[in-house]
Amino acid sequence: MELMMRNMFQSLGKSRTANRLAKRYGLRFGAARFVAGETIQQSIEAVRGLNQDGRIATLDHLGEFVFSEAEAVESADMCIQTLDAIAQAGVTSNLSLKMTSLGLDISRELCVSNMRRILDRARMHGNFVRIDMEDYAHCQVSLDIYRELRKDYDNVGIVIQAYLFRTMQDIDDLHELGANLRLVKGAYKESPQVAFPEKSAVDENYKKIIQKHLLNGHYTAIASHDEAIINFTKHFVKANGISGDQFEFQMLYGICEDLQKQLVKEGYRVRIYVPYGVDWFGYFMRRLAERPANVWFVLKNMFK
Protein backbone atom coordinates (compact mmCIF):
# COMPACT_ATOMS: atom_id res chain seq x y z
CA MET A 1 0.00 0.00 0.00
CA GLU A 2 2.78 2.43 0.92
CA LEU A 3 4.57 1.74 -2.37
CA MET A 4 1.34 2.23 -4.33
CA MET A 5 0.71 5.55 -2.63
CA ARG A 6 4.27 6.70 -3.25
CA ASN A 7 4.04 5.84 -6.95
CA MET A 8 0.67 7.57 -7.24
CA PHE A 9 1.90 10.83 -5.72
CA GLN A 10 5.09 10.81 -7.76
CA SER A 11 3.02 10.40 -10.94
CA LEU A 12 0.60 13.15 -9.92
CA GLY A 13 3.52 15.48 -9.28
CA LYS A 14 4.48 15.26 -12.95
CA SER A 15 0.94 15.86 -14.24
CA ARG A 16 0.36 19.23 -15.93
CA THR A 17 -3.40 18.84 -15.52
CA ALA A 18 -3.13 18.19 -11.78
CA ASN A 19 -0.75 21.13 -11.45
CA ARG A 20 -3.26 23.46 -13.15
CA LEU A 21 -6.05 22.28 -10.84
CA ALA A 22 -3.85 22.81 -7.80
CA LYS A 23 -3.13 26.40 -8.82
CA ARG A 24 -6.86 27.02 -9.16
CA TYR A 25 -7.65 25.86 -5.63
CA GLY A 26 -4.60 27.29 -3.89
CA LEU A 27 -2.75 26.07 -0.80
CA ARG A 28 -5.67 24.15 0.68
CA PHE A 29 -5.90 20.67 2.18
CA GLY A 30 -2.64 20.92 4.10
CA ALA A 31 -0.13 22.12 1.51
CA ALA A 32 0.42 25.31 3.51
CA ARG A 33 2.16 23.23 6.14
CA PHE A 34 5.00 22.51 3.71
CA VAL A 35 4.93 25.63 1.51
CA ALA A 36 5.55 29.05 3.08
CA GLY A 37 3.12 30.89 0.78
CA GLU A 38 2.67 32.05 -2.77
CA THR A 39 4.47 35.43 -2.49
CA ILE A 40 8.00 36.55 -1.70
CA GLN A 41 6.80 38.56 1.29
CA GLN A 42 5.08 35.52 2.81
CA SER A 43 8.28 33.51 2.43
CA ILE A 44 10.40 36.28 3.97
CA GLU A 45 8.13 36.39 7.01
CA ALA A 46 8.46 32.61 7.36
CA VAL A 47 12.26 32.94 7.27
CA ARG A 48 12.14 35.75 9.81
CA GLY A 49 10.26 33.46 12.19
CA LEU A 50 12.86 30.72 11.72
CA ASN A 51 15.73 33.14 12.31
CA GLN A 52 14.18 34.27 15.59
CA ASP A 53 14.76 30.87 17.18
CA GLY A 54 18.18 30.27 15.64
CA ARG A 55 17.35 28.48 12.41
CA ILE A 56 18.68 29.73 9.09
CA ALA A 57 17.06 29.09 5.73
CA THR A 58 17.29 28.56 2.02
CA LEU A 59 14.44 29.97 -0.05
CA ASP A 60 13.17 28.23 -3.16
CA HIS A 61 10.80 29.86 -5.64
CA LEU A 62 8.97 26.79 -6.87
CA GLY A 63 8.68 26.22 -10.59
CA GLU A 64 9.02 22.97 -12.54
CA PHE A 65 6.64 23.42 -15.48
CA VAL A 66 8.52 25.80 -17.78
CA PHE A 67 7.75 25.47 -21.49
CA SER A 68 9.03 28.69 -23.07
CA GLU A 69 12.02 31.00 -22.97
CA ALA A 70 9.81 33.77 -21.58
CA GLU A 71 8.73 31.56 -18.65
CA ALA A 72 12.34 30.60 -17.94
CA VAL A 73 13.44 34.23 -17.89
CA GLU A 74 10.50 35.09 -15.63
CA SER A 75 11.52 32.30 -13.25
CA ALA A 76 15.09 33.61 -13.16
CA ASP A 77 13.75 37.09 -12.49
CA MET A 78 11.85 35.72 -9.49
CA CYS A 79 15.06 34.19 -8.15
CA ILE A 80 16.76 37.56 -8.47
CA GLN A 81 13.85 39.28 -6.74
CA THR A 82 14.10 36.73 -3.95
CA LEU A 83 17.78 37.51 -3.45
CA ASP A 84 16.97 41.22 -3.37
CA ALA A 85 14.18 40.63 -0.84
CA ILE A 86 16.49 38.60 1.42
CA ALA A 87 19.04 41.41 1.40
CA GLN A 88 16.45 44.13 1.95
CA ALA A 89 14.80 42.29 4.84
CA GLY A 90 18.11 41.40 6.47
CA VAL A 91 17.08 37.80 7.09
CA THR A 92 19.56 34.92 7.07
CA SER A 93 18.82 32.80 4.03
CA ASN A 94 20.40 31.71 0.81
CA LEU A 95 18.66 30.56 -2.39
CA SER A 96 17.88 27.14 -3.83
CA LEU A 97 16.69 26.57 -7.39
CA LYS A 98 15.96 23.95 -10.02
CA MET A 99 17.60 24.45 -13.38
CA THR A 100 14.60 23.04 -15.24
CA SER A 101 12.74 26.14 -14.01
CA LEU A 102 15.43 28.23 -15.75
CA GLY A 103 14.95 26.57 -19.12
CA LEU A 104 17.29 23.56 -18.95
CA ASP A 105 14.89 21.44 -21.02
CA ILE A 106 14.55 24.22 -23.59
CA SER A 107 18.19 25.19 -24.08
CA ARG A 108 21.35 24.66 -22.10
CA GLU A 109 22.58 28.11 -23.18
CA LEU A 110 19.37 29.72 -21.90
CA CYS A 111 19.72 27.95 -18.56
CA VAL A 112 23.39 28.92 -18.13
CA SER A 113 22.62 32.53 -19.02
CA ASN A 114 19.89 32.64 -16.38
CA MET A 115 22.17 30.97 -13.83
CA ARG A 116 24.86 33.59 -14.42
CA ARG A 117 22.40 36.43 -13.92
CA ILE A 118 21.29 34.88 -10.62
CA LEU A 119 24.82 34.18 -9.40
CA ASP A 120 25.93 37.71 -10.27
CA ARG A 121 23.12 39.14 -8.13
CA ALA A 122 23.85 36.68 -5.30
CA ARG A 123 27.52 37.67 -5.36
CA MET A 124 26.54 41.34 -5.22
CA HIS A 125 24.60 40.61 -2.02
CA GLY A 126 27.25 38.28 -0.59
CA ASN A 127 24.83 35.36 -0.83
CA PHE A 128 24.98 31.73 -1.93
CA VAL A 129 22.94 29.69 -4.44
CA ARG A 130 22.28 25.94 -4.26
CA ILE A 131 21.38 23.98 -7.41
CA ASP A 132 18.81 21.31 -6.54
CA MET A 133 19.36 17.96 -8.18
CA GLU A 134 16.41 16.62 -10.13
CA ASP A 135 15.71 13.24 -11.68
CA TYR A 136 18.36 10.98 -13.17
CA ALA A 137 17.79 12.29 -16.70
CA HIS A 138 19.05 15.70 -15.56
CA CYS A 139 21.91 14.50 -13.36
CA GLN A 140 24.85 14.62 -15.75
CA VAL A 141 23.94 17.89 -17.45
CA SER A 142 23.39 19.50 -14.03
CA LEU A 143 26.85 18.45 -12.88
CA ASP A 144 28.37 19.61 -16.18
CA ILE A 145 26.81 23.06 -15.81
CA TYR A 146 27.89 23.22 -12.17
CA ARG A 147 31.49 22.55 -13.22
CA GLU A 148 31.23 25.28 -15.83
CA LEU A 149 29.86 27.79 -13.33
CA ARG A 150 32.49 26.98 -10.70
CA LYS A 151 35.14 28.38 -13.04
CA ASP A 152 33.74 31.85 -12.41
CA TYR A 153 31.73 31.59 -9.18
CA ASP A 154 32.56 30.37 -5.70
CA ASN A 155 29.07 31.10 -4.33
CA VAL A 156 27.34 28.11 -5.88
CA GLY A 157 26.79 24.55 -4.65
CA ILE A 158 24.85 21.53 -5.81
CA VAL A 159 22.98 18.51 -4.46
CA ILE A 160 24.12 14.88 -4.59
CA GLN A 161 21.66 11.98 -4.15
CA ALA A 162 22.65 8.88 -2.19
CA TYR A 163 20.25 6.52 -3.94
CA LEU A 164 22.10 6.66 -7.27
CA PHE A 165 24.80 4.08 -8.06
CA ARG A 166 26.99 6.81 -9.59
CA THR A 167 27.08 8.98 -6.48
CA MET A 168 30.34 7.80 -4.92
CA GLN A 169 32.17 8.49 -8.19
CA ASP A 170 30.54 11.92 -8.39
CA ILE A 171 31.84 12.72 -4.89
CA ASP A 172 35.34 11.75 -6.03
CA ASP A 173 35.05 13.81 -9.22
CA LEU A 174 33.84 16.91 -7.35
CA HIS A 175 36.65 16.71 -4.80
CA GLU A 176 38.99 18.75 -7.00
CA LEU A 177 36.45 21.60 -7.09
CA GLY A 178 36.18 21.82 -3.32
CA ALA A 179 32.43 21.54 -3.91
CA ASN A 180 29.94 22.70 -1.32
CA LEU A 181 27.41 19.85 -1.40
CA ARG A 182 23.99 19.15 0.01
CA LEU A 183 23.76 15.38 0.48
CA VAL A 184 20.28 13.83 0.29
CA LYS A 185 18.81 10.36 -0.04
CA GLY A 186 16.80 11.24 -3.17
CA ALA A 187 13.09 11.83 -3.79
CA TYR A 188 12.47 10.84 -7.42
CA LYS A 189 11.24 7.52 -8.76
CA GLU A 190 14.19 5.93 -10.56
CA SER A 191 14.91 2.68 -12.36
CA PRO A 192 16.71 -0.10 -10.43
CA GLN A 193 19.27 0.09 -13.23
CA VAL A 194 20.50 3.45 -11.89
CA ALA A 195 19.40 3.58 -8.24
CA PHE A 196 19.40 1.37 -5.16
CA PRO A 197 15.89 -0.08 -4.83
CA GLU A 198 16.21 -0.90 -1.13
CA LYS A 199 16.15 1.69 1.65
CA SER A 200 18.87 -0.09 3.63
CA ALA A 201 21.29 0.19 0.69
CA VAL A 202 20.46 3.88 0.24
CA ASP A 203 21.07 4.53 3.94
CA GLU A 204 24.42 2.77 3.83
CA ASN A 205 25.53 4.70 0.77
CA TYR A 206 24.35 7.91 2.40
CA LYS A 207 26.59 7.31 5.39
CA LYS A 208 29.54 6.58 3.11
CA ILE A 209 29.21 9.79 1.11
CA ILE A 210 28.77 11.85 4.30
CA GLN A 211 32.02 10.37 5.61
CA LYS A 212 33.89 10.84 2.36
CA HIS A 213 32.90 14.45 1.73
CA LEU A 214 33.57 15.50 5.31
CA LEU A 215 36.96 13.79 5.37
CA ASN A 216 37.79 15.45 2.06
CA GLY A 217 37.52 18.69 4.02
CA HIS A 218 34.65 20.29 2.09
CA TYR A 219 31.50 21.95 3.36
CA THR A 220 28.72 19.41 3.78
CA ALA A 221 25.00 19.93 4.23
CA ILE A 222 23.35 16.77 5.56
CA ALA A 223 19.72 17.05 4.48
CA SER A 224 17.70 14.43 6.33
CA HIS A 225 14.94 13.97 8.90
CA ASP A 226 16.23 10.48 9.67
CA GLU A 227 17.42 10.58 13.28
CA ALA A 228 19.66 7.55 12.69
CA ILE A 229 21.52 9.49 9.97
CA ILE A 230 21.66 12.62 12.13
CA ASN A 231 23.05 10.70 15.10
CA PHE A 232 25.53 8.92 12.85
CA THR A 233 26.79 12.31 11.65
CA LYS A 234 27.04 13.67 15.19
CA HIS A 235 29.21 10.75 16.29
CA PHE A 236 31.33 10.85 13.14
CA VAL A 237 32.21 14.55 13.33
CA LYS A 238 33.01 14.25 17.02
CA ALA A 239 35.22 11.19 16.52
CA ASN A 240 37.09 12.83 13.66
CA GLY A 241 37.45 16.31 15.13
CA ILE A 242 35.46 17.96 12.35
CA SER A 243 34.56 21.56 13.11
CA GLY A 244 30.95 22.71 13.28
CA ASP A 245 31.88 25.32 10.67
CA GLN A 246 32.32 22.57 8.07
CA PHE A 247 28.80 21.17 8.06
CA GLU A 248 25.15 21.84 8.75
CA PHE A 249 21.93 19.88 9.06
CA GLN A 250 19.13 20.73 6.66
CA MET A 251 15.43 19.92 6.93
CA LEU A 252 12.22 20.82 5.15
CA TYR A 253 9.86 23.56 6.21
CA GLY A 254 7.03 22.13 8.29
CA ILE A 255 8.60 18.74 8.98
CA CYS A 256 10.17 17.58 12.28
CA GLU A 257 10.15 21.04 13.82
CA ASP A 258 10.87 19.73 17.34
CA LEU A 259 13.97 17.98 16.03
CA GLN A 260 15.06 21.13 14.19
CA LYS A 261 14.83 23.19 17.38
CA GLN A 262 16.56 20.52 19.46
CA LEU A 263 19.56 20.49 17.11
CA VAL A 264 19.79 24.28 17.39
CA LYS A 265 19.80 23.99 21.19
CA GLU A 266 22.64 21.48 20.92
CA GLY A 267 24.68 24.06 19.02
CA TYR A 268 24.40 22.70 15.48
CA ARG A 269 23.81 24.85 12.43
CA VAL A 270 20.35 24.05 11.08
CA ARG A 271 19.08 25.33 7.74
CA ILE A 272 15.46 24.99 6.70
CA TYR A 273 14.44 24.58 3.06
CA VAL A 274 11.57 27.07 2.62
CA PRO A 275 9.64 26.73 -0.66
CA TYR A 276 7.16 29.31 -1.91
CA GLY A 277 5.32 30.27 -5.09
CA VAL A 278 2.22 29.42 -7.09
CA ASP A 279 3.82 26.39 -8.78
CA TRP A 280 3.91 24.35 -5.57
CA PHE A 281 2.08 21.18 -6.61
CA GLY A 282 5.00 19.01 -7.80
CA TYR A 283 6.96 19.78 -4.63
CA PHE A 284 3.94 18.99 -2.46
CA MET A 285 3.37 15.62 -4.17
CA ARG A 286 6.99 14.58 -3.52
CA ARG A 287 6.58 15.40 0.16
CA LEU A 288 3.51 13.15 0.31
CA ALA A 289 5.34 10.40 -1.56
CA GLU A 290 8.29 10.54 0.84
CA ARG A 291 6.37 10.21 4.10
CA PRO A 292 2.98 8.43 4.28
CA ALA A 293 2.34 10.23 7.60
CA ASN A 294 2.06 13.45 5.61
CA VAL A 295 -0.87 11.96 3.70
CA TRP A 296 -2.93 11.49 6.85
CA PHE A 297 -2.21 15.10 7.81
CA VAL A 298 -3.63 16.23 4.46
CA LEU A 299 -6.68 13.93 4.71
CA LYS A 300 -7.52 15.34 8.14
CA ASN A 301 -7.40 18.86 6.71
CA MET A 302 -9.68 17.84 3.83
CA PHE A 303 -12.33 16.48 6.21
CA LYS A 304 -12.07 19.60 8.37
Automatic annotation (TrEMBL):
Transmembrane segments: none annotated. The keyword Transferase does not apply. Gene3D superfamilies: 3.20.20.220. Its EC number is 1.5.5.2. Its cofactor is FAD. Pathway: Amino-acid degradation; L-proline degradation into L-glutamate; L-glutamate from L-proline: step 1/2. Residues 45-298 form the Proline dehydrogenase domain. Keywords: FAD, Flavoprotein, Nucleotide-binding, Oxidoreductase, Proline metabolism. It catalyses: L-proline + a quinone = (S)-1-pyrroline-5-carboxylate + a quinol + H(+). It is an enzyme of class 1 (oxidoreductase). This is proline dehydrogenase. It comes from Paenibacillus chondroitinus.
